[in-house]
Amino acid sequence: MPLSDAAVAVRPRSPWEAVDLGVRLAQRHAGLLLASWALLTVPLLAVFSLLLWRYPSVALLLFWWLKPAFERLPLHILSRALFGATPTLGQALRAWPGLLRGELLASLTWRRFSLSRSFTLPLLQLENLRGQARRQRLDALGRRSGVARWLTLLGIHIELLLWTGLLVLIYLLLPTDFASESSWLALLLRPPEEWLWLEHLSNACYALVLVVWEPIYVACGFSLYLNRRSELEAWDLELAFRRLLERLGQASLVLLLSLGLWLPHGAVLAQETEQTAMPVSLAGSATCLLPSEDNPGPQAPRLTHQPLDSQQARREIQALLAAPPFHRVEERIDWGWSAADEPDAPPLIRTPAWLQGATAVIEVLLWALLVAGLALLAWRYRDWLRLFAVRGQTAREADAAPPAQLFGLAVDPRSLPDDLPASVEQLWAVDPRAALALLYRGLLSHLLHQRRLPLRAAHTEGEVLVLLQGLDDPALDAFARRLLDAWQALAYGSRPPPAELGPELCDAWRQLGLNSRAQAGVAP
Amino acid sequence: MSEESSLPLDGEPAAATPQPATETAASQLQRATQLVQALREELGKALIGQQTVIDDVLCALLAGGHVLIEGVPGLGKTLLVRALARCFGGQFARIQFTPDLMPSDVTGHAVYDLASEQFKLRRGPVFTNLLLADEINRAPAKTQAALLEVMQERQVTLEGNALAVPRPFMVLATQNPIDQEGTYPLPEAELDRFMLKLRMDYPAHAEELELVRQVTRSARSDMLEVTALRPLLRERDVPVLQKICAELPIDAQVLDYAVRLVRATRDWPGLVFGAGPRASIALVRCARARALLRGGEFVTPDDLKACAPAVLRHRVRLAPELEIEGQDVDRVLAQLLDQVAAPRS
């Protein structure tokens, strides 16, 4: 299997171009890839379905979980086909069990959810790397596996799209009478056992989708891997030299090697991985040139008998490279967080003391300005604030102590005479208006302090009566009505009260036992 | 009703007209009260479940003011006016305000008479006692302004001649509260000329039940009959009633209360602008009418307070902040009434 027979033109590509190459690769070997995948997976799914007939979801999950194991088959085919050694279908299928050996458990457990699966599989399968070596190799290769992750995400969506598309296609191809809503509803309303086959059908669709997509996915991952290697190890150059070698014959081998293989370009990048650089499947072949153990390497002193030996030349080269135009010092100033990271670093500009004082003053001024602004705002809208604050307080007002002064009258109990009816009777003869006012005050005082009636300055006589009705005391109500009628007639209509009204009201007052001075707080 | 009407009203209409030489003021007042009460009950038969609106409309009639009634369609605004016109016995005219109504359609205009080869004045529908301006906000401001002069001066100037409208003259305008397409809000000057703005609300359950029962019993399709109502009041009785009403005594404190209420609206937080002196005048007149309606011999602060919302609500403007909050004028006015001290001595 000569390496120079590579079926693809190996050259450094952008990762997405490499993915494109993978698609072309899968396309070229589509028949073999699809057939091998189908022959491998479809019977397996059938077996799962039969074993887990009552649990179609579990069967599907199991099938899905085993995908990394299946993916080794297309990779095997592709790696052979790359250099023209395409296996037959039988060969590939027979090789599959052997391929499962390398770290299958890891692939199916903790690496199952790795998004760069397609990219790292060749490492495992073709380079046959394990443990520490694999990790080092991944470090060298895997710094740009972003596209591989995107490829997996893309793959998930493509799978879902194709899957739903296939299901919808099946639905669309159903005869109309069967596809009518009622029959579907009737079907879905039946016990779940009766539509298990539907789920198995959808599982089968998924398997079909994988037949198409998975080989492409593996091929894309493989080509990403190839691309990364040709970037790091100058594979393209190596293959070009090999072709030259074949054309010119063995004689020129030494010349070619001294000219080409030890160029710093590929060697520097691939230094740490040279020993295992080739795919395992290729490493055994006669034409695969690996660096020999006794090779002195680029660092060894050479040309020691020349006027300019390699060491000196190297030093001169280094000096040349360190000077312009190869070495350029560029200064850039960027914004960054410095104070938090380096607490001990001295400030770039030392602030003068007077400036610090000024900033303190300015800070105080700004705060004062803010406070003043808020105060001004509050003053500007004081009416609003009062209105809404008062509205909120109305509930609490009922519990507050009743006011001493109300309606322009002194209604505090202490301002009233001890024996109110007696005072009224005395006043009645000389000044009926004052007598009525005294009675009215007494009544209001009683209502406010004993009955806790929430009277306010805005209440008119009529409203006082309405509030009184709420107390459910007919005797008091009748008394108040007589009193207030007389009061209104006197105050607003200038109609003097009848002479007999005074003593009657006083009697009623005594009968009701009204006493605004009672401290017990219990009214009859 | 028959025992009411056997009082001085219907059987002997002349009794309602005052004879100052023979009758004392007290009995005159008593008769006026009885008359108004009878009118109130009669209107209550036609318009069920809107007693407060009837009271307010009667107040405006007694106080010589105009009324703007706001309410959703179908609450009987027009019915009320028709019933009032019927009970009142005066002339009644109705203008349906439409977007293409012209001022001359309201006030009248000169037409050329071919026979006499002269211009003749053709009087518009405003020359009446009771004018119903239906859906007044459907006409543009130009037409609405045609009512300004007649409402304030009670005269119409046509072709340079000032023509007085018959007395009593009262405008009852209706409008729908919902902001609809093709309505023009009334300008402040026009609003200020209405003594009261009434809000008609849905009747209570029991009253609506009674209403439905009566209407469905009627032969007419979907409205209450007003033909059954008896004319209780004649055209010339109304000025007399208005005079009695205007002479009702009002105490200085109550007068002061009215002025204080109106002045409070001018710097009340939540109101952009308050009511003018016309509001104080209307408030006092309306309180007098309400006292008469109540049967009182003098005006109390309660009378004043009861009609204050109707007098003030169209004369103040709510602050935009409160409008955004979803408050309405009535609520702010209730707060105001709740904080201005009532008079005491």
From TrEMBL, chain A:
Pfam families found in the cross-reference section: DUF4129 (PF13559)
Occurrences of domain Protein-glutamine gamma-glutamyltransferase-like C-terminal (ranges):
439-510
Query: Is the keyword Transferase in the record?
Result: no
Transmembrane stretches in the record are 32-53, 150-174, 206-227, 248-270, 353-379
Arranged from A to Z, the UniProt key words for this protein are: Membrane, Transmembrane, Transmembrane helix
Question: Cytoplasm among the record's keywords?
Answer: no
**Matching InterPro entries, A to Z?**
TgpA-like_C
Give the protein's recorded name: Protein-glutamine gamma-glutamyltransferase-like C-terminal domain-containing protein
Q: Specify the species.
A: Pseudomonas linyingensis
From TrEMBL, chain B:
- Keyword Nucleotide-binding tagged: yes
The record's GO molecular-function terms, alphabetically, read: ATP binding; ATP hydrolysis activity
> Does the UniProt entry include the keyword DNA repair?
no
UniProt entry keywords in alphabetical sequence:
ATP-binding, Nucleotide-binding
Q: Which SUPFAM superfamilies match?
A: P-loop containing nucleoside triphosphate hydrolases
InterPro entries attached to this UniProt entry: AAA+_ATPase (IPR003593), ATPase_AAA-3 (IPR011703), CbbQ/NirQ/NorQ/GpvN (IPR050764), ChlI/MoxR_AAA_lid (IPR041628), P-loop_NTPase (IPR027417)
Q: Which domain of life is it from?
A: Bacteria
Q: Which Pfam family, an example, fits this chain?
A: AAA_lid_2
Kindly give the Gene3D superfamilies that the UniProt entry links to this protein.
Magnesium chelatase subunit I, C-Terminal domain, P-loop containing nucleotide triphosphate hydrolases
Residue ranges under compositional bias (Low complexity)?
12-22
Disordered: region residues: 1-22
User: What SMART domains has UniProt attached to this entry?
Assistant: AAA
Provide the AAA+ ATPase domain boundaries.
63-204
Family according to the record: Belongs to the MoxR family.
PANTHER family to which the protein is assigned, alphabetical: MAGNESIUM-CHELATASE SUBUNIT CHLD, MOXR FAMILY PROTEIN
Q: What is this protein called?
A: MoxR-like ATPase
What organism, scientifically named, is this protein from? Pseudomonas linyingensis
